[in-house]
Every structure is written in C-alpha cells, then in structure tokens.
Amino acid sequence: MFVKEGIIASPGIVIAKALVYEKILIEVNKNKVEDTDTEIVKFQNAVQTSHEQLETIRIKAISELGEEEGAIFEAHAMVLDDPEFVEGVEAEINDNHLGADYAVKIVTDRFYEIFDQMDDPYFSARAADIKDVGTRVLQNILGIVQADLSKLDEDVIIIADDLTPSDTAQMDKKRVMGFATNIGSRTSHTAIMARSLEIPAVLGLGDITETVKTGDLMVVDGLTGKVCVNPTSEQLESYEKEKLKYQNYLKELEELKDLDAITLDGRKVELVGNIGEPNDVAGVLKNGGVGVGLYRTEFLYMNSDVMPSEEKQFAAYRSVLESFPNGPVIIRTLDIGGDKKLPYLPMDEELNPFLGLRAIRLCFKEIGLFKIQLRAILRASVYGHAYIMFPMISSITEVRQAKAILLDCMKELDEEQLPYDKAVKVGVMIEIPSAAIAADIISKEVDFFSIGTNDLCQYTLAVDRMNQEVSYLYDPFNPAILRLIKQVTAASDKRDNFFTGMCGEMAGDPLAAVLLLGLGLYEFSMSALSIPQIKKIIRNVRYEDAKDIADAALNMETGEEILDFVQDSMKKLNINL
C-alpha cells in the first residue's frame, strides 16, 4: 500500500482496478532520402487517413459526449489542413531531403513549442492537441497501431503518462471510472475531459505509471488530490464512506440548480460562466449559470486560418446571446498578442511580450480588425443582453479611445440602418495594477468592472505563474491582491447602477468565495462545473459575516495567514467544502 499526491483535476472518489496505458514508442528515421516525391505521397496519404480517423472519432465523441467534445476533433482536422503545417512538412522533405516521418516530427515539435510556451494556461494546454495530431500522422506513416481503449471488460482507472484527446474520445466511457497521470494540469485536455465525464482525476503524479501495475486496486481521490494503491481494508471502508458522503453532496448541489445565489441575509449575487465558444453554453446552463461573465472571443480567431468575418462573428455572438435571454453575456474584445499570435496577422517579436503589444493595445493599432469585431457585437446585441468588455486597460485615456472607436461603429450602423442596442453596457477588465488603483477615475467612463485575477496577480507580484522556479510566489490571497480588489469594489459602490465582477480563476475557488463576497463582489464568473459549489457556499453564509471575514483578512500580513484564517472561519460557520 502507498499513497501519492498530485493535482486535483476533477472532483470525486472512485475505487477500481488500475489499467496502465502505455503507448508504443515512435522512432523516426533521420537519414536523408533521395526520392522526395515518394515521401510527399506518404505524408499526403497519412494526412488523408488521419482525416478519416478523426471524422469517425468526432462522430463518436458527439454521440457520447456532445458537440463540445466533438469540436475538439474539428480543431484537429483544421491542424491537418493548416497551410503552415502542411507546407512546413513538405518543405522539410523537399528542401532538406528528410523522410516524411522525420519531417512531421520536426514541424509538430515546432508548433508544440509555440503553444507550450504561451502564458495563457488554456493555450499552453492546447499544445497537447498539436502533439496528438502530429502523433496520429506519424503512426499512419509508420503503420503503428496503439492499444485499444474502446473495448474494456471491467471498470478501470486509466493510468498513463498523459492522455490525448484521441485517447479519451475512443475509450469505453462506461468502463472508465477515473484518471491518474504522470503529467498534466487543471487546464489540460485530460482535466477538461475528466470534468466533462464527471469522473475523478488526479494529475501530475510524476511516476505513477512506474509505481502502479495493471490490476492493482486503486483509489483516486479527486477531493484531496491523492491516490491510494492497494489500500488496506480499513482504508477502503473509510474511502467508501467519503465516496457516499460526496455523492449525497452532489445531490444537494443538483437541487440548487434553479435557485438564486443569495445569502442568508438577502444579498444576491450573480453566478455566470466563462466560455470560449458557443458550444460551452450548454455546460453553463446545465450547472445553473445565469449568464456569461467572460466570452473569450480570441478563440474565434485562433481556430481560424483567416481573419473571421463580421458575419461569422455576428453569428457566434448571436448564438450565445439567444441562449441567455434574461442574463448578461459579457463579450471581451480580442485579447491577442504577445504570446498569443495569429498566423494571418504579422507581428514583430518583442523582448517582453506580456508588457507589449497585446489586447486593447493591438486593437488600437489594428483599428480595422477592432471595428469589425465591435460591429459584430453591436449587431448581435439586439438578441439579448450584450455587455462589451475591453481587456488590458491601464488608464482612462485608453477607455476613452476605445469608446470613441465604438461610437464610430455605432454611427456606421446608424447610416446603414442596422439595429443594435443603443444602450449597450461597456466595461473593462481590471487586470493591471494601475487600473485597480485608478478604479475610481475609470469608473466614470464605464458601466462595470470585471477583475481578471490571473493577470492582476502576475503583474502585481511580478511573477510568471507558468515558471516553476517562481510559481510559488503566485498567490491570489496575497494582502496586496486583496487590497486591490477591495479598492476596485469600493470605487464601484460609489456609483449608481454599477457592478464589479470577477472572471479570473479565483472566482471559482471555493476557499475564496466567502472572502470575495465580503470584499463586495457582485458577480462571480467561472468554469461551469464550479458554479453549483460556489452557489451552495453563498446560500449558506450571511453577507455581514462575510464582510467581517474580509475586513479582518485585509489587516493580515501574509497570504498563508489569510488562507488559514478563511478556512477556520468557514469551519466556524459550518460551511463545508
């Protein structure tokens, strides 16, 4: 018996036998070739075969998991058709006389490194998708057939180094009870799939594939981030009790779906979802979200080979707005640049891209691009309650500049006699310290704030959370962060018909919910699966108690002290996670 601890990727407790999923090692031939035409044909045939396989998997994924998971394989097919990928491989073959397999590996590795080094965890996690596509093409070139997870005889916990979208799409969903992997993060595909399947998963275990054997009895505890291998009878009994307790807890959460997020003493807040595309709406609705607090529109651009047209954007925004006829849909304008680049938008290399030309700064440079998006949002605004949000704002001057461009778009639509919501709400993300400090000034020009804690923490604490050497400094409970949040909500409270929300990861953290409520947050925007638990916490606390907790935390000196205090306070209030 032994216990290992990793990263919680999906909650829950499962007990089943382990199945160690090991892949055949792919070795490429690095020798030069003379007959490049034959290698080009090999590559083209492998791409065609890959297309056929992906279509089969896509149909299976849609039937078993829904449109959202099927869309993953549409994105994979787009990689296969990407001119940079195809032409890159063919150039390696023709120019450098490389075999098709080696050329695919080189180009795949090149793409993988670009995505893997991106600061945004969502985009860095997409590196695994790139590798998955490249691996599929390589296998088809080399005639390699991997182990089949689609036919399982018993319930199992999959143990792997990592799981690709193709792995998870093809596996027998009725038999797979949980995941445990060597690598991965909360934003990796494995984590996303586990949450979609609503099965427990613990990732980042380091060497779990080396320490577990197929057939070992395992417990994956997605509540504590621990896995227990070959547990004792006493441990099994204890885990069975915890499993039953969690199942009863989930039933309680289901009963809250259609109830308001309102405190015991009557303060109502809005719980809304973060989405990247229209397909994500289903999860928000399923979990009781009343709207969208962050629509990351950059995915429309990232998942396209060309600049998305006004009509394409209009259709996407309209689709989401129609899904929430009574709730807000906050659409963030394009947040691209720095480490997030578009193949069809040339950009110069920057020494420090995170402090450079990105988000609203890029839009000011590419006003034509910006106006196309604003026009699309405005036109869609008549189909619901659209809110326009500008990212990466550092001063009121930028707000005024963005609003002037928005006004130009409104005048154009008036001249074209195209309808739009003339009273559309306009807000900004508070993710740069200067904006938080000057919140009282900026509030004069907008209707709402949404605090982006991910970047606010990085810029305030001067720490790259993706850098393992310094990531320990990334702490949303740091007193400086809490004081900035309070400064923003205080400025918000001074204005009529104004609200402050939060769309960073902190908004979906159960340990932060009471604290953020007490700091004056009106709207919490998070991943769909986090909504029920945050709602339960809100409905089981008094706002006055939450304010007392926040006031006390603001006078503390360290993030550790604040976190310990919040946890102790929640226990005293009988708020159990």
Q: Summarize the biggest pleated sheet.
A: 8 strands, mixed
**Whole-angstrom Rg:** 25 Å
The percentage helix is 40-55%
Q: What does the average pLDDT come to?
A: 88
Task: Give the DSSP E fraction (strand runs of 2 or more residues).
Answer: 5-15%
Helix count, DSSP H or I runs of 4 or more residues: 24
The geometry reads as: globular
Secondary structural class: alpha/beta
Distance between the termini: 28 Å
For this entry, give a set of tags.
eight-stranded parallel barrel, single chain, 24 helices, alpha/beta, eight-stranded mixed β-sheet, 17 strands, 577 residues
Structure at a glance:
The protein is α/β, with parallel strands linked by helices. It contains 24 helices and 17 strands. Helix 4 (100-116) packs antiparallel against helix 6 (127-142) and helix 21 (510-518) crosses helix 22.
